[in-house]
Amino acid sequence: MNHPTQQSVPQLPADYQEILKRIDDELRAFIESKGYPQNLSDAIAYATLGGGKRIRPALAWYTSIACGGTGIDAVQSAIAVELIHAFSLVHDDLPAMDDDDLRRGRPTLHIHTNQAMAILAGDAMLSLAYESLIDNSDPTRATKLIRELANGTRAMIVGQVYDTLGGFAEGISQEECLELIHTNKTGALLCTACRMGAISSNASPEQLEIVTQYAHAIGLQFQIVDDLLDIEGTTHAVGKTLGKDEAAGKLTYPSVIGVEQARAASDQLGIDAQNLLDQLAKNHSRGPELIKSLRLIGTMLTSRNS
Ligand code: IPE
Ligand code: IPE
Ligand code: MG
Ligand code: MG
Ligand code: MG
């Protein structure tokens, strides 16, 4: 199996770039439509549109398709979840948090502008994400999507508190702490992206349950690979300053169970996710075709180097 250090280039779905462009265009138009002061609008655009893998929007889109939808029906969800993600990165990089000056291969927002603007732009992105879900032709669905996004955002913030400040219940093991950090700070929002994609396409409760299990697997895997890349990646590919987790004494999978075990855990979660996609496919006559793009994304998540 390929690993982040091996510089493999995973195959992506044929329409991946086209979908990302669609998401970027929608995001840009939405930010510009708000009539913010120019400095705030520029800061939000810098943090939101300046690169990034767009994995969460892609997951929303392709999960919609995997559940029998069009992908396009998940576009609002895709925008909302990417806004929350980009906001979380802006605040994660602040001096009071991880104190990072490089993100997506460019200066972080507080270096590009200043700390006050980074705090306020992050606040604005949080509120924008919810605004993006309000204008939905189906108010019942909008309510469900807003609830999903609130769940994911709450978990992300809880995870960031665990990661940065602790606050765990007494007597839990280091492994349990680690799983709590990772599933909350990162896994939850990936899960939200998938569940919002499924809800956007009116998935059945059975489909939503399988999607949730699938998303838990890739969500935890995503942060394990992020931890591995902090040790084994290249700054050029990752676009971040590496080696920061160890320097900051962060609780990570490689630091607690070792690099090899962390890689094995990531590989196993990738296999679990692919098996869950098979289960999802069984529920639909065109199932294998509908899950094709999520399959490719899964391979990318396991072998990514950025
Ligand atoms: C980085 O997320 C932060 C984590 C939650 C692990 P991504 O690796 O998705 O960052 P971008 O969006 O591609 O920059
Ligand atoms: C960040 O985790 C998670 C969130 C932003 C919610 P990290 O601190 O490991 O992410 P990077 O490595 O800075 O992207
Ligand atoms: Mg952090
Ligand atoms: Mg960080
Ligand atoms: Mg990291």
Your description of this structure?
- With 306 residues, this protein is mainly alpha-helical.
- It has one domain: Orthogonal Bundle (Farnesyl Diphosphate Synthase), CATH 1.10.600.10.
- The protein has 15 helices and two strands.
- Strands 1-2 form a two-stranded antiparallel ribbon.
- Strand 1 and strand 2 form a beta hairpin.
- Helix 1 runs antiparallel to helix 2, helix 3 packs across helix 8 and helix 3 runs antiparallel to helix 15.
- The radius of gyration is 18 Å and the shape is globular.
- The protein starts with 15 loop residues before the first helix and ends with a helix.
- The protein binds 3-methylbut-3-enyl trihydrogen diphosphate (2 copies) and magnesium ion (3 copies).
- One magnesium ion binds next to loops.
Question: Can you summarize the main beta sheet?
Answer: 2 strands, antiparallel
CATH architecture: Orthogonal Bundle
CATH class: Mainly Alpha
Poorly predicted regions: none
How big a fraction of the residues is strand? Answer: under 5%
- CATH-defined superfamily: Farnesyl Diphosphate Synthase
User: What is the H/E string?
Assistant: HHHHEEHHHHHHHHHHH
- Secondary structure: number of strands: 2
Number of domains: 1
Q: How confident is the prediction overall: mean pLDDT?
A: 95
Helix content: over 70%
By secondary-structure content and strand pairing, the structural class works out as: mainly alpha
The first-to-last residue Cα distance is 17 Å
The small-molecule ligands in this entry are: 3-methylbut-3-enyl trihydrogen diphosphate, magnesium ion
CATH topology: Farnesyl Diphosphate Synthase
The radius of gyration is 18 Å
Number of helices: 15
Shape: globular
Biggest sheet, strands in spatial order? Answer: 1-2
